[in-house]
Amino acid sequence: MEIVNNQYQLSGGVDPLGLVEKYGCPLYVYDTSIIERQYKRLNNAFSWKKLKVNYACKALTNINILKFIKSLGARLDTVSIQEVKLGLKAGFEPSEIMYTPNCVSLEEIAQAVKVGVMVNIDNLSILEQFGQEFPDYPICVRINPHIMAGGNNKISTGHIDSKFGISIYQIPHVKRIIQATGLKLNGLHMHTGSDILDIEVFLSGAEILLNVAQDFEGLTYIDFGSGFKVPYKSDGISTDIEELGERLTERFAEFCSVYGSDLDLVFEPGKFLVSESGYFLAKVNVIKQTTSTVFAGIDSGLNHLIRPMFYDAYHDIINVSRPTGKTRIYTVVGYICETDTFGINRKISEISEGDIIAFKNAGAYCYMMSSNYNSRYRPAEVMVYNGQDYLIRKRETMDDILKNQVEIPLFDEVIA
User: Fold this and answer.
1) Of the candidates 254, 274, 294, which is a domain's last residue?
2) Would 416 be classed as within a structural domain?
3) Is 140 a catalytic residue?
4) What values do phi and psi take at 70, rounded to 5?
5) What pLDDT sits at residue 156?
6) Is the pLDDT reported for residue 159 higher than 60?
């Protein structure tokens, strides 16, 4: 979103205030031009001819976004059988879907086998059960490289006490299970965390994974996960994808030469592809001043955007209604009966009640973590594509709040 002629615009000249008038508020908006930019950037960074990009769809699973990302040439990374079904519904072939669950039952994994998607297993117990039940089904194994990485300890997934992955020190056990069951291992995987800036973290993890891979014959791909950091501030820093691409491609080529086969080099970006494409638009209900703080209270809360409260995540906040107004300091809060603070002492163009503000980087893990807390409705979603806006999810109503509740007549007479 950029200021053009003293007003904010999305790609193609789409007016965000016009979207609010058309679809209501609060509102999630996704600009597909940014998703395409990020996808092309990642592809251009790696010269390896067998690069595969699996979109980590837990970031944003609206089926229209899935279809758009598929149109770019991406495949899909899923973490639940429901995401697998969404991927199939969006048109992905089973061979284009990786299923990487954590702490699920063998029964759910069996459903993934039934539809024919790629399966990634991250614990020894399930690996052994899977080998006994489906010895002829090729699988991938998720390795825990014991690397502490990520922008927050809640989003670090590769450290020694993580619930994710099979420890590198348990590789001998993995070999014994494969030998005993006859399993065919065709891939190795790791994912150390999210919001990782230092490319040395990726390269260190890659070295560990490649060393493990030398001990297994018949591999066709290695999945290096993702977790690339994207900028959350106007002057924010991000992962140097270009340098990572150059250095990892060179190292991967060396490995494949020794291994004797050109394997697929796989990444599974989620936030990297969709975070910057998203904007969350909300209306200012009230300006409230205390002895020391000026609050801007909006028509939303942690029920719609929980990341600032959950992860202490930073989202840049702008006043869409007054792009060039005088800057003042505000603490932006929500309408939920909890302490739902989006930002403390933020410099924002002067806000009046009724103004529309926007949260940037709202494309990843924002709508997906929304809820009906306080019995509030989830917002609508809009996609901007080639200068046109499309409603891709309706705003909820009271019917949505009630539709799965079952009323029983026990208390009707008492109430009457």
Assistant:
1) 274
2) no
3) no
4) -65, -40
5) 42
6) no
